[in-house]
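FAQ
Q: What does a multi-component entry look like?
A: The components come first, one per line:
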Amino acid sequence: MFKANIYVTLKPGVLDPQGEAVKNSLHVLDYPYVDEVRIGKYIQVWLQGEDREKARRELEEMSDKLLANPVIEDYRVEIAEVDEP
Amino acid sequence: MFKANIYVTLKPGVLDPQGEAVKNSLHVLDYPYVDEVRIGKYIQVWLQGEDREKARRELEEMSDKLLANPVIEDYRVEIAEVDEP
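Then the predicted structure of the entire assembly, as tokens:
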């Protein structure tokens, strides 16, 4: 069994209105030295299987098809082997 | 200058309807061996400063006050020193 961590981020240059709003709120809360905030997704996936390379390949497919929008987002997949839950 | 990565996740036991929906979609897309999906936030913050301990303390404050909801979410803060952009 594997546990994957998938980090989905907006590509550089793509505007992040949510991040901009959080930055402005942090300035109001008296953290003026915050320069930039970008908000992405942290997706944890647990999946059955024993072939790590197959798992990686399929997690990248899942990311391309469903978890990320490849037009405006990048993603990074990390995989660890874990015991059955 | 520091760059922080903040990982915000739902606490164990808190229902994740978005993760559940993604899991069901992955089953429909023919990945039946996906057991569980949990969706959190990956927040990147760039901030001015030279005192790493102060930065960590304040990032934890920011997380408690604004970035996470401590009632239902956990968070983890990672800090790296970076060059000026």
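Q: Is there any commentary attached?
A: Sometimes. For this entry: Chain B has two helices and three strands.
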